[in-house]
Amino acid sequence: MSGSDKDVPSRDELEQMSTDELVKLGTNLDGVEIIHRAERYTEAGTRVEKRAERQVAVWFTIAGISALACLGIFLFNHWEFALPDDPNYWWYTFNTPLLGATFGLSVLSIGIAMILITKKFIPSEISVQDRHDGGSAEVDKKTIVGLLQDTGTTSTLGRRKMIIGSAGFGLGAFALTGLVAFLGGFIKNPWAERENAPLWHSGWSPIYNSKEDPNETVYLRRDTGNPYQVALVRPEDLDAGGMETVFPWRRSNGFGETEHSRHALMESLHEVRNPVMLIRLRPEDTARAIKRKGQESFNYGDYFAYTKVCSHLGCPASLYEQRSNRILCPCHQSQFNALEYAKPIFGPAARALAQLPITVNNEGYLVAAGDFIEPVGPAFWERKS
């Protein structure tokens, strides 16, 4: 808070004060004593001064170039899924790291440039201020403007066109990149495919069956580490109390013999809504399991299949504790009861995990008996449940 009323000049007196007088008045009213103050450069145009100016300009320029590179990667780089033998594979693989590196370098460069301005051009000053509380009076608002004007003058930034130009370029490119990245999320229409939009379905859906066989069987496939190996799951492969992550596979996906087949096999493992937890309960646990209305036939004996995509924020709910029959999402600690249709019992998740209907075909393999009856993952505006 400022000093007593007798120390506060009138409005007319404030208007007539110079910047130096306002600076001195502001420090006095705030109980600040400037013990030491020295200009960075006693003479203008020296080599040291010009070198400092170039250093600041270089970092602002790097910020601008990095921001424009980030913008170019965001707009033009190959971001869609690509196989290892695809010519765009490395561009796809490094898309996110390149976005993070260029955007991060731009932010870092702006920060370094601002620090250099403080260290190279703002006068060196040591001040001591009395502690005080309260809001700002009119005189404080007026004097702070004077202090800012004084800072601008004494820093000599006003006459340094190189720094002003590079700062405009760096900050402008950074702001443009941020704006385009923000607007980019509104450009692609997630509902362009209407009822076949990706948010409504997963890779288990019949809409992804081949046109030649629209009713083809969707098998439960395990990930062996080799994306082109097809390992199907039988009931006897899983011990009581065990859990395994499975993915959809159709005969039309092939066995990796063609490029189309390799792409389908790889996509099956990487599509975000595909992972499913196949859980085999102990017989005594199955006897007391509570099934959700409309999902009474979704399990096959002791075998229950729930999506691995958490209903909170889409994290992988990938941990299963067989003694308590709890499914745990390690990201935000949501817990789901596998004995009660994966109903949430702890943490921020508010909805049960979607359950996949499964059965065994005449070959003895576990297969999907249909798609999820609800969208997988977290909520969105159009979702009604």
From TrEMBL:
Q: Does the record carry Acetylation as a key word?
A: no
A single GO molecular function, which one?
Answer: metal ion binding
Q: What is its main location?
A: membrane
| Cell location | Cell membrane
Which segments cross the bilayer? 56-76, 96-117, 163-187
Q: What are the record keywords, sorted?
A: 2Fe-2S, Cell membrane, Disulfide bond, Electron transport, Iron, Iron-sulfur, Membrane, Metal-binding, Oxidoreductase, Respiratory chain, Transmembrane, Transmembrane helix, Transport
Regarding the membrane, this protein is recorded as: Multi-pass membrane protein
Check the record and name the Pfam families matching this protein: QcrA_N, Rieske
- Carries keyword Protein biosynthesis? no
**Domain of life assignment:** Bacteria
Which parts of the sequence belong to the Rieske domain?
Answer: 273-367
Cellular component (GO) terms are: plasma membrane
Q: Say which family it is in.
A: Belongs to the Rieske iron-sulfur protein family.
Reported function: Iron-sulfur subunit of the cytochrome bc1 complex, an essential component of the respiratory electron transport chain required for ATP synthesis. The bc1 complex catalyzes the oxidation of menaquinol and the reduction of cytochrome c in the respiratory chain. The bc1 complex operates through a Q-cycle mechanism that couples electron transfer to generation of the proton gradient that drives ATP synthesis.
This protein is called Cytochrome bc1 complex Rieske iron-sulfur subunit
Source organism per entry reads Gordonia amicalis
